[in-house]
UniProtKB/TrEMBL annotation:
Its EC number is 2.4.1.1. Its cofactor is pyridoxal 5'-phosphate. This is Alpha-1,4 glucan phosphorylase. One of its GO terms (molecular function) is pyridoxal phosphate binding. It comes from the Bacteria. It holds the Pfam family Phosphorylase. PANTHER family: GLYCOGEN PHOSPHORYLASE (PTHR11468), GLYCOGEN PHOSPHORYLASE, LIVER FORM (PTHR11468:SF3). Belongs to the glycogen phosphorylase family. The lineage of its organism: Bacteria, Bacillati, Actinomycetota, Actinomycetes, Bifidobacteriales. It catalyses: [(1->4)-alpha-D-glucosyl](n) + phosphate = [(1->4)-alpha-D-glucosyl](n-1) + alpha-D-glucose 1-phosphate. The modification N6-(pyridoxal phosphate)lysine is found at K666. GO terms for biological process: glycogen catabolic process. InterPro entries: Glycg_phsphrylas, Glyco_trans_35, Pyridoxal_P_attach_site. The gene is glgP. It comes from Bifidobacterium avesanii. One of its GO terms (cellular component) is cytoplasm.
Length: 817
């Protein structure tokens, strides 16, 4: 990996201040005396863009000139977080910004806080994509991140008076947004519906309607690399935005109907798909951004050519499919090559399979998208024809590889049933060069279980790339105190671009004075987070308690229910007198998660957590020893405040269900200890930080599978452990629902009769490990020694390393000279 030194600022403090004044005057139309922090934020952002512009142009030009193959990262989500601080850091202008803003009479943090976080993702998949484009730029690799500029993101989470999740629009684009450059001159036409006809012996798609895909470009500056890549997000517009004749008839809503229908495509992330209309809109979204991106790539790499040699496309760019959402790009590229450029099937398929690669992010069958063939046929009739032909060719290919007819049938891309379905993960595996999982365990299970038939016949396609996170945002920006201590301990700041250098901290874990400095950093971060939580949410957190966090998407397999049941059990023991409150370790438990709007049990779990918090936090018998908080609308900003302040991180998903996780990496890198199962990247974290520095509990994948096979009866565990029985009984009897026994009846029934992810089976082991955790926490020096060893041994989990793995194993490209 190329060594990167710290960036040097291209601008002095005085020049930065002058740039802000000029932007305020000519852009915002205000003087510094009239300006608000929001004005200064916009002006500062435009100054940063100005100084990045030349590097951005040069990166694009060098890429087009073929100096190295580019990467096209296709993702439905890019959870990029706030941009200003990150751009300042990577461009070397942090100090100049702070000093310039202060010279104008403003507080830098207030200016930074004026930026509204882009609502462009939901969770780990989108944050991973953002880390990866950051690392691509930092390694000097030319790249496009391609996605959608959602107007309202997924949703803004609020809680009503009963603790239930309420979804509100996230108006992140309501104010001026200086980072996204709208480029109407490079828009693309994306079509839907219609029919396929044959003309002169060739198939011709006659679409019924089209939308305009307008690119919105975000610069992605690399850390000290001198390179600036592009995040190109597409916004859907109508070609017929307004019907004047209809409007003049006073039919006002009908007059703007085409505009509304077109713009719905990029309105929100992941529309609820429990209805046919929702499914249709999701497929429209997916095709919209990949079709626009493929057209854009041809425009970028073959400028002005009416008859380009697209057999060279795999040498120009490699597309990475970030999960199944962009997989419709495979038949789209085939359509473009065959229908628009006249290539024969074999040549088109050769180009396509050399261009695409697929990252699978899940082992859950419901997350491997399967589309009804008739829906694809309705929206994309030519693509369904191509998918069926891909399937036919693939089945013929399989007959040459195996005589196992059942295996061939299992591997069909298009199912053979009355209402056929298209398996997008199978299409991606057949239509790409490589398939990778995102942690060693996940990749092995992908080969052994989820895509076993494909792995048997195409073993060379499968590989692993363990996820990573960018240290720039999640250590340097999120945790400046720890960053300074690391630099002090190592004697250099080069670790920001070579995170394996953290290993040099390991000897310092034997130095009590250094460990005490490390502990002081954590305490100061906790005090900062307590102030932040008070300011933002009105919470009263005690920074002298253990901060215990569980932040991740709300899903049954992630088992927030296990955490809340253990908390209820602790509460029940205190209330019953089994445990003296004076002997309880003071603990503050913080949840952060959104649930999909239609996910009934997940939303009920949110309501339960909020109402446990209401009861426990207001019970005088607890004497402040146990508090539960659930800050709403969890996002990157909240993560950057909470992760550095956390003592204990929860990674308690059922073994074999979490693909990787990246929150576990962020916590370990910021000095939290982990309690977790052998799932996802937990396995690799534990191997690297040391088993003695990780709190392991719960069943293994093999034990989970064996219990499924013999028949799982959750009520047995309810009867076996009095702590579990007491906790569930309190939920059932209305303790946390003002005496109403019906409020959580579906949740209780699911726990006792189904409990598919075996929360009850792992409950006893989870509660027992808490005794070890609390015993260690009572020894602050030893706790912090182990926490420091987590930091020292987590350097592997950098997104720079992950991207280097992709470059070496899959993309076979490298940085620009």
């Amino acid at each position: 990996m190329t060594e990167i030194t710290a960036p040097k600022s291209p601008v002095t403090t005085a020049e930065f201040a002058d740039g802000i004044r000029e932007q305020l005057k000519y852009g915002q139309g205000v003087t510094p005396e009239q300006a608000t922090p929001a004005d200064v934020y916009v002006a500062s952002s435009l100054v940063v863009r100005h100084y990045l512009q030349d590097a951005w142009f040069k990166t694009q030009q060098d890429m087009v000139n073929g100096k190295t193959k580019a990467v096209g990262y296709l993702s439905a989500e890019f959870l990029i977080g706030k941009q200003l601080r990150n751009a300042l850091l990577n461009a070397g202008m942090l100090d100049q910004f702070d000093e310039a803003v202060e010279s104008l009479g403003f507080d830098p943090q207030t200016v930074v806080d004026a930026e509204y976080e882009p609502a462009l993702g939901n969770g780990g998949l989108g944050r991973l994509a953002a880390c990866y484009v950051d690392s691509l730029a930092s390694l000097g690799v030319p790249a496009f991140g391609y996605g959608i500029q959602y107007r309202y993101g997924i949703f803004r989470q609020e809680f009503d008076s009963e603790g239930r999740q309420v979804e509100k629009p996230e108006y992140w684009l309501a104010n001026e947004e200086p980072w996204g450059h709208v480029d109407y001159n490079r828009s693309q036409k994306v079509s839907f519906g219609g029919t396929v006809v044959e003309e002169n012996g060739r198939k011709v798609w006659k679409p019924a309607w089209s939308v305009r895909a307008v690119p919105v470009d975000y610069m992605v500056p690399g850390y000290a690399s001198g390179r600036v890549d592009t995040l190109r997000l597409w916004s859907a517009r109508s070609y017929d935005e307004f019907d004047l004749l209809t409007f003049n008839k006073s039919e006002y809503l009908d007059a703007v109907k085409p505009k509304v229908e077109a713009e719905n495509i990029s309105k929100i992330l992941y529309p609820e798909d429990s209805t046919p209309q929702g499914k249709r809109l999701r497929l429209e979204q997916q095709y919209f951004f990949v079709a626009a991106s493929i057209q854009d790539v041809i425009r970028v790499f073959y400028p002005g050519q009416s008859n380009p040699d697209l057999t060279t496309l795999p040498d120009k760019i490699t597309f990475q499919l970030n999960d199944t959402h962009p997989v419709i790009g495979i038949p789209e590229l085939m359509r473009v090559l065959i229908d628009e450029y006249g290539y024969d099937w074999a040549t088109a398929w050769d180009i396509t399979t050399k261009t695409f690669n697929y990252t699978c992010h899940t082992l859950l069958p419901e997350a491997l998208e399967v589309w009804p063939a008739d829906l694809i046929g309705e929206l994309l009739p030519r693509h369904l024809e191509i998918i069926n032909e891909i399937n036919d060719h693939f089945l013929e290919e399989l007959k040459g590889k195996t005589r196992d007819k059942e295996k061939i049938e299992r591997m069909r891309i298009v199912t053979n049933e009355e209402n056929p379905k298209v398996r997008m993960a199978y299409l991606a595996t057949a239509g790409g060069s490589h398939v990778n999982g995102v942690a060693e365990l996940h990749s092995q299970l992908l080969k052994d279980v989820t895509l076993r038939d494909f792995s048997d016949l195409y073993p060379d396609k499968f590989t692993n790339v363990t996820n990573g996170v960018t240290p720039r945002r999640f250590i340097r920006l999120a945790n400046p105190r720890l960053s300074n201590l690391i630099t002090e301990g190592l004697g250099t700041d080069k670790w920001l671009s070579d995170l394996e250098m953290l290993k040099g901290l390991e000897p310092l874990a034997k130095d009590d004075e250094f460990v005490k400095k490390f502990a002081a950093v954590k305490q100061a971060n906790k005090e900062d987070f307590a102030a932040y939580a008070k300011r933002e949410y009105g919470f009263e957190l005690d920074p002298n308690t253990m901060f215990n966090s569980m932040i991740k998407r709300l899903h049954e397999y992630k088992r927030q229910s296990l955490k809340i049941l253990a908390l209820i059990a602790k509460y029940a023991d205190i209330k019953s007198g089994k445990v003296s409150v004076d002997d309880v370790l003071p603990r503050t438990v913080i949840f952060g998660a959104k649930s999909a709007p239609g996910y009934y049990l997940a939303k009920m779990t949110i309501q339960l957590i909020n109402n446990v918090a209401r009861v426990v936090n207001n019970d005088p018998d607890i004497k402040g020893k146990l508090h539960v908080y659930y800050p709403w609308n969890y996002n990157v900003r909240l993560a950057q405040h909470l992760i550095p302040a956390t003592d204990l991180d929860e990674q308690i998903s059922q073994a074999g269900k979490e693909a990787s996780g990246t929150g576990n990496m962020k916590f370990a890198l910021n000095g939290a200890l982990t309690v977790g199962t052998l799932d996802g990247a937990n396995v690799e974290i534990r191997e690297r930080v040391g088993a003695e520095n990780f709190f392991l509990f719960g069943m293994t994948v093999d034990e989970v599978d064996a219990l499924y096979a013999q028949g799982y009866h959750p009520a047995v565990y309810y009867e076996r452990d009095p702590r579990l029985k007491a906790a569930i009984d309190m939920v059932a009897d209305g303790t946390f629902s003002n005496g109403d026994r019906n409020t959580y009846a579906p949740l209780v029934a699911d726990w006792l009769t189904k409990d598919w992810f075996m929360t009850l089976a792992d409950f006893t082991a989870y509660c027992d490990i808490q005794g070890e955790i609390e015993a260690l926490y009572r020894d602050p020096l030893e706790w912090n020694r182990k926490a420091l060893l987590n930091v020292a041994n987590s350097g592997y989990f950098s997104s720079d390393r992950a991207i280097q793995d992709y470059l070496d194993k899959i993309w076979h490209t490298g940085p620009l000279a």
